[in-house]
Design brief:
The protein is mainly alpha-helical. Helices cover about 65% and strands about 10% of the residues. It has a two-stranded antiparallel ribbon with strand order 1-2. It is rod-shaped, with a radius of gyration of 35 Å.
Length: about 100
């Protein structure tokens, strides 16, 4: 007595081979293997979406922290730049005054 195992109903197309293929696994439920059964696919899609959303939230929180650090550093650099500009302007005024005094 031989046991007849039916193959999974899933048929897919491989572009590089330009041909249709049927899944080679044996059917478990409703003519589909465990991987290609619609319920399994839905469960996997839900799981993947949850993982994707968690990664997006994680990236967003680290990006916000990094952005805050960069804004703080930028503010410090702008303050330093303003101080250096004021110092340069004062030095120019002193030099200009010295030249006027020297020319007389």
């Amino acid at each position: 007595m031989s046991v007849i195992s039916t193959r999974c109903k899933e048929v897919f197309f491989r572009k590089h081979l330009r041909d249709h293929f049927q899944c080679s696994r044996s059917a478990v439920k409703d003519g589909y293997c465990k991987q290609h059964h619609p319920e399994s696919r839905k469960a996997l899609a839900i799981k993947n979406e949850a993982r994707y959303n968690a990664n997006i939230l994680k990236r967003a929180s680290t990006t916000d922290v990094r952005l805050a650090e960069l804004e703080k550093a930028n503010d410090a650099l702008e303050a330093e730049n303003a101080a250096l500009k004021a110092e340069l302007e004062a030095e120019r005024r002193r030099a200009s005054y010295s030249l006027r005094k020297f020319k007389k």
